Amino acid sequence: MARESREVVFVDGVRTPFGKAGSLYAETRADDLVVNCIRELMRRHPQLPAERIDEVAIAATTQIGDQGLTIGRTAALLAGLPRSVPGYSIDRMCAGAMTAVTSVASGIAFGAYDVAIAGGVEHMGRHPMGEAVDPNPRIVAEKLVDPSALVMGSTAENLHDRFPAITRDRADAFAVLSQQRVAAAYRHGVIQESLVTVATRSAELGWGLATADEPPRPGTTKEALASLKTPFRPHGRVTPGNAAGLNDGATAALVAAEDTAAELGLPAAMRLVSFAFAGVDPEVMGVGPIPATERALRLAGLSVDDLGAFEINEAFAVQVLAFLDHFGIDDSDGRVNPYGGAIALGHPLASSGVRLMIHLARTFREHPEVRYGLTTMCIGLGMGGSVIWENPHHRDAGSPVPSALPVQPKGGAQ
Amino acid sequence: MTTMTDSDLEMLITQASALTESEMVTRALSRDVLLPHTGSTAVLITLDNGHDHAKPNVLGPRSLAALNAAVDAALLRDDVAAIAVTGKPFILAAGADLTGVPKITERSQGETIARIGHAVFDKLHSAPVPTFAFINGLALGGGLELALHCHYRTVSAAAAGIGLPECFLGMLPGWGGAYLLPNLIGPDAAVTVIIENPLNQNRMLTGPQAFALGVADALFDGADFLERSLDWAGQVVAGTLTVQRREIDRGEAWDAAVARGKEFVDQKVSGAAPGPYRALELISAARTAERADAFAAEDAALADLLVSPELRSTLYAFDLVQKRARRPAGAPEGALARPVTRVGIVGAGLMAGQLALLFVRQLQVPVIMSDLDTDRVQRGLGYVHAEIDSLLGRGRISADQAHRWKGLVSGTTSHQDFAGCDFVLEAVFEELETKKQVFAAIEQHVSDTCVLATNTSSLSVTAMAADLRHPERVLGFHFFNPVAVLPLLELVRGESTDDASVATALAVAKALRKNAVLVKDAPAFVVNRLLTRWIGEVSRAVDEGTPIAVADSALRSLGLPLPPFVLLQLVGPAIGLHVAETLQAAFGDRFTVSPNLKALVAAKRPGIYDWTSEGKPYVSEQTQQLFVTGDQPSTREEVRLRVLSALAEEIGLMLAEGVVAAPMDIDLCMILGAGWPFHLGGITPYLDREGISEKVVGRTFLPPGVASLA
Question: Do the beta carbons of residue B477 and residue B455 sit within 8 Å?
Answer without folding.
Answer: yes
